[in-house]
Amino acid sequence: MKTYLPIGSVVLLKEASKRIMIVGVAQIEAGTGKIWDYSAVPYPDGMIDSNRLVLFNEDQIHTHFFVVFQDSEGIQFHDSLSSNDQLNQDPNQDIHDEVSRLIADTYERMEKSLHRSISSIEEMSRALFYDKPNLASKLLGTTNNLRIAMEYFKAGDIDTFLEINKRCMREIDQSFEDEDDLI
Asked: Looking at the structure, do residues 84 and 105 belong to the same domain, yes or no?
């Protein structure tokens, strides 16, 4: 169960030189919906500008300088926060899950499409082998490069995959243009 420091506690964050005073707990960041453990203002200055509110999590605290006295109302409030499982969950988890599913689905479809393309080029190469052996040979070489591109794709290196894929498409176009020039 998560516990929170009381409002008014003074801490120093890691990598910081100025102490801050906690003014809020379980704070939701506007615009992102991310839940932070605390919000704070510079200490001893206090709230100078509403845009200078610091949002941070417990693991970012380096030193506790002062922990405020808490009465029963404060303890009860913190206990209710600690037992609230929704605060310990990412509010965007459903969105993250859906995006991950869509990306995985897209990868799967692209991989199947690439397999079909390679198979089609190989079939075309076999059909052309006796009539146009040079073209068939070039197309088979391109399928080997496409297989290499697919390995980069599987490894998540999309930039290299796209670069090799573009080069393969240019090779195929060039092979057919060269063959047309011979006719």
From this structure: no
Amino acid 14: pLDDT: 92
Cβ atoms of 57 and 63 closer than 8 Å: no
Look-up of token digits 């397999």: 115
> Domain of 170?
94-182
**H or E segment to which residue 26 belongs:** strand 20-28
Task: Compute the distance between CA of residue 16 and CA of residue 90 in angstroms, rounded to an integer.
Answer: 26
Residue 3 lies in a domain: no
Rounded Cα gap, residues 138 and 111, in angstroms: 23
Count of H-run helices and E-run strands, the chain = 4, 5
Q: Which two tokens stand for residue 106?
A: 């897209």
What is the block-wise mean pLDDT of the chain (183 residues), using blocks of 10 residues?
A: 80 90 84 84 82 86 74 70 56 67 77 84 82 82 84 82 85 78 52
Q: How far apart are CA 122 and CA 18, in angstroms?
A: 67
3-state class of 70 per DSSP?
coil
Domain end position, chosen among 91, 123, 149: 91
Q: Mark whether 137 and 75 lie in a shared domain.
A: no
